[in-house]
Records
---
Amino acid sequence: MNTFQEAPALQERPDTNQDIQLRSPTATDGAPVHNLIRKSAFLDDNSLYCYLAICTHFSKTSVVATMGDDLVGVVTAYIPPEQPDTLFVWQVAVDTVAQKRGLASKMLNYILEQNGCKSVQYVETTVTKDNDASRAMFASLARRRNCNIDESVMFDREEHFLNLHDTEYKLRIGPFAAAE
Ligand SMILES: CC(C)(COP(=O)(O)OP(=O)(O)OC[C@H]1O[C@@H](n2cnc3c(N)ncnc32)[C@H](O)[C@@H]1OP(=O)(O)O)[C@@H](O)C(=O)NCCC(=O)NCCS
């Protein structure tokens, strides 16, 4: 079960703009990423091995955010082999202490600016109907990039999840202008 708590009041939060560093993950980030995912609302908790593999094999298309010794944000993403123009964003999590200060948006930008994303013209992700924060975050990305969002069912509650999980809707955002 997730143990999500309300974000603290604004005045209690650190100045994340000054204190937060972004970088590509390494294998030693796997365990802290797993911990952050486990305490985030809405996100499926996968095995530690899964996050070790992501931090190792998809490091160039993922990002972690640290504040001192603490990992406070992560975006895991990859370029699907059959879609070299698309970044598929798998999970995004920001610790409650750093939410609503633009960190998720900065992390998405960080990945899109990496060399490995030069051919990326679309961002895809999946969201459930009720994840307002996630929908707002991707709507904001589309607005900033002046792009449309197409929405369709990707993994259906009955057909794919055997009624164990809500339907995941695919958001396809783009096309972006390709980097020079
Ligand atoms: C979704 C999440 C990653 C957003 O992180 P964040 O750093 O607070 O997001 P940002 O500050 O960059 O905000 C991005 C946009 O989303 C909006 N937003 C963020 N949280 C919101 C919320 N709870 N409700 C409505 N809008 C929200 C912001 O206003 C901003 O829009 P704007 O650019 O038009 O002002 C964070 O709330 C989280 O970790 N949630 C739990 C896990 C999750 O749902 N992950 C997404 C699915 S993979």
---
Amino acid sequence: MPSGIKYCYTCDADEPHRPLTGPENAWLKNRTGQKNVDGYFMCEAPKCRNIRTGFDKHPFDPVIRVPLPD
Ligand SMILES: [Zn+2]
């Protein structure tokens, strides 16, 4: 299984994930109030963009999705 393929809680399937970009990291810090948001991944399935970590398929309840860039 390719390393980027992880289970997505909201897709209920194994989907490609990628690390967050710099602006997405900044957005997530602001969104969650966490000082360190390293280790989060975003589901790349169309229209999903749900966030998980490498270890936790469901770190946020309700789930957090990365907004589309402007
Ligand atoms: Zn997904």
